Amino acid sequence: MKVIASYSIKGGVGKTAASVNLAYASARAGNETLLIDLDPQGASSFYFRIGPGKKQKKGFFFNQKNRLLKNIRGSNYKRLDILPANLSFRNFDIMLSSMSKSKKRLKEMLALLEDEYDLVILDCPPNINLLSENVFNAADLILVPVIPTTLSERTYEQLVRFFDNNSYKKKKLRPFFSMAQSNNKLHRQTIKEMESRHPNFMKTIIEFSLEIERMGVHRDPVLAYANKKSAAQAYRKLFNEVVSSLK
Amino acid sequence: MKLSKIRQSHYLLPDNMTKKSFLDTLGQEFVVKQVENTFEKMAILDSFEWALYEHRILAVRHDNQRISLWFDEEDILDPDEAHTIEDINARTQFWWQLAESPERDILKKLLDLRAMYPVYEGLLRTEQFNLMDNDGKILVFCQLITISRPENSRKAVFRMARLIPITGYKAQSKQASELIKSLGGFMPKLNPIDSLLSALGVTPKPFNIKPRLDLDPQMSSREAASVIISIMIDKQRQTEPGIIKDIDTEFLHHYRVALRMVRAAVAQLKEVFPPQDVIELKQRFGALASETNHLRDLDVFILDKERYMALLPPSLRDGLLPMFNDFEQSRTAEVRRIARWLASRAYKQEITELEDRFKNGYSALETHWSEQPIINLAVTKIQKRYKKIQKAAAKITHDTPDQDIHDIRIDCKKLRYLLYFFGNLFNKKQVKIAGRHLKALQDHLGIFNDLSVQAEFLENYLDEIEHKSKKDIMLIASLGGLISSLHTMQLQERERCIDALAVFSNKENQRLFKQTFVLEQGSKKEKGGRK
Q1: Domain count of chain B?
Q2: Which of A29, A48, A126, B103 has the most beta carbons within 10 angstroms of its beta carbon?
Q3: Minimal Cα distance from B164: which residue of A?
Q4: What is the pLDDT of residue B475?
Q5: ipTM for the complex shown
């Protein structure tokens, strides 16, 4: 079982779109896939038409396998399951900080799912806190969507510094350009500069696209309703790149 | 989740259920959306031996365009779980006609030289429905699978609903199954493949050329011999339609194997029949076998074409092609001749007459052995045959003529048949070990023999060529190369035969045969049987 995270300190950069489409591509490729919606806003769950899970008693999430499995919902697609966002995820940080080994709890919990899934995708909330650090420990690969603008660039470098300062494995970090506009000169320039500074960027670029924006209307992955469009092809390419990086 | 797959369920539905009532009933609790509806010609494929059925595999050919395979019986006819082989047509029968794939490798193992052909042909309708809530979230996947006869597509002969639950929606899947039950749906008692075949009126009859005999040790020897011969004639006859239709080469091969066992029983148990009858039976069964010799030789050559080509350097390979073309042409003519022969009144009369003679006990004058218990005859025959092989093996040196090795091969074959006939009269475990040792030896002897038969066949073919054209000269060169290759291989195999013979006749195996094929165990078994 491999774990990948879709993570960024900034919001609105295409994390959820990436999570949802990669999860779908993974299931289509024959992998038993679980998408864990760690974002209390529950956007991933919304796209798959799954309501928020029941409110859970404090502390359940990280230790009991049966209760964990009970909260998993199958999506409309075979081999693709969702652990829906739970409103109590809001208090993760408080909950985690009261526990021992508080930065490895998520990793321990995912170990319980080892026999059930080939791939787990974590759709993370936008901030940097104790939950994020759990993600850094648990994931084999951390995808970071970056909009090719100066501000996003600075945020990404902030994350790299955080990894340096806290000695997290930097090679897990795999940024990719998201919502890029090929007709925007500034975008093109930023992409060029960042790629030369950070050779760990994924080759695939997810262009800004109306098809992706329409996900909220369709409530389905782009790959499901616009399989042949360029946006879908880009996500498929990204998934293949993820697979080969995991090997 | 990997766990969730296990819980799918299927229901057989009444033939007269309408689709409207199906949809209305499910519609009571769910928003029902049909997502798939295919209607196509279908054929269930299997081999004469029912090799796929025996391995719980279902193969379906759709519209003569592709084959679906289901390796897990629970998934049969589920389009999402099918392993598909594309680019086939109605005449695709053998694994080697398929494009390379993991599925082909599995079929290769199961079918070997066998053809797969339709055991049922009909029409298949596959409908998939999503059972959803008002938000468009799917709660249960549902399939409705209908098979009807080609001549009456409106009347279902098989109708199955499959519910595939979705993780986290257990209650809804239970609800759906209640609705299906209210339509008269029920869970079949048989496992899925059997319930499908039985609904279609297809009864699998797996064929195995090896006789499964369980003779009573005290049965009279003549009766036992008649039972054996009857069973083998029956097997022989089962292969006839396949030879006539030329489905695959195994039919003729098995026809000959069965006939060989009949002849072995007549010759080896000759003491139970009057001597003049033995001479007559040998002659009559022998005549049947020799009719088929030429076709079998051609089959063996053509099947081994690739191997022969590989024995030659590339420059000589093409030289062989005219010979194989010749063989193919002769084969076509020979198949036709054999088919006519098997269908002829003369053949039918002959075989029925022979069959009838053994069917209800062979009536003729008593002989010294005919009324003695079969166990006595079995022990005598097996011990004698083993000792003969053992003695011959002791005399073998590196200078022994090939003919002596061929004679030992024939003795081994006779011993093999005795084990087929009488193995069950003795300790099964020990018989199995003895059989395994014998098999190891026979494998080498068999290769040795094949190589010399093939070389001889080629030499004869060479004699017949009128070497005039350049093409013929190339063929002669290729044949020369091939015959010398075969000769080298034969010399190597000879050494292996000698080694294997030494093992088969060593002290340990002598003891094994001595202890296994004895009267005492037979009588013990008899006591057990009477209790």
Answers
A1: 3
A2: A48
A3: A78
A4: 84
A5: 0.80
